[in-house]
Amino acid sequence: MQNTIKSPLSFDGVGLHSGAPARLTVLPAPVSHGVIFRRVDVAGSSNEIPALWHHVRQSPLCTRLVNSDGVAVSTVEHIMAALVGCGIHNAVVEVDGPEVPILDGSSAIFVRGILGTGIQRQDKPVRALRVLKPVEVRKGQARARLSPHKTLLIEFNIEFEDAAIGEQKKTLNMSNGSFVRELSNSRTFCRKADVDHMRANGLALGGTLENAVVVDGENVLSPGGLRHRDEAVRHKMLDALGDLGLAGMPILGHYQGFRAGHALTNDLLHALFADKDSYEVVECDPDMAARLPGAGVHWGEIPEVA
After folding, report:
1. Which domains does the chain have, with CATH numbers?
2. pTM beyond 0.85
3. pLDDT tens, 241-283?
4. Quick one: residue 85, left, alpha or beta (phi over 0 = left, psi -120 to 50 = alpha)?
5. In what order do the strands lie in the sheet with 9-14?
6. Among residues 55, 235, 262, 298, which one is catalytic?
7. 11, 25, 78, 191 - which has most CB atoms within 10 Å?
8. Annotated catalytic residue 54
9. Which of 77, 112, 104, 79 is CA-nearest to residue 14?
């Protein structure tokens, strides 16, 4: 069955890029509504932005959604990952500015809010997108691929010169609450040199050592160090789940990312939907629904470190 949240919940923080105060509120929504972002600081009917792949306007640092009137909201990937990973199919996400608050740089605080307020089952089956044949996109050495699988399986490889990150690889089946247990508290990460460059160009003004893992060579500069030895690749998987959530329905397929980022995952969705023979939309029976991300997730699966 489809799910929404039982009651509204709000989160206060700052935007990663502007450093300005930001509030996000998640509201319940009816069956088959999907996820829609609403800019409450924008007057009129043009303030709603569907959380769908074809509304993405690619940017190098985050996922940015823009509607036909040019109203935008940035850094949607962490709240989208939380919604997908908790099995929420219908919601209105209100934001009082152009950026979703970065909070601690992961999805953990969003997940705690969703599971704390509770999940409301709705009386309509979930529709899922089942991948029927491989689809792949490349850009330079980076590549992203979707191929058939009975669940959503995410596989990711990263390679960084900094010894604190280096080469990392991980594969996870997203069924049975594994997102909440394994990925939800993994924070965004960056190199100190990149932070310095972005700050010099007026970007990442809301970034701190408290909401990102900052590395410099073999050193982790963020207080407390890493939450996981392979936190970096886990966060890339978190981002991928959020970006794949913009398909508008759960995906049954094997996602593989090698040095991939937000833009390439969105390119992959464009390639998938451009080939009508590469997928089908199916109504999930109980067995299939039990394999979707978030099925049966509960509070006890939240990592203690979050």
Report:
1. 3-121 (3.30.230.20), 127-295 (3.30.1700.10)
2. yes
3. 999 999 999 999 999 999 999 999 999 999 999 999 999 999 9
4. alpha
5. 9-14, 21-28, 91-95, 35-39, 48-50
6. 262
7. 78
8. no
9. 104
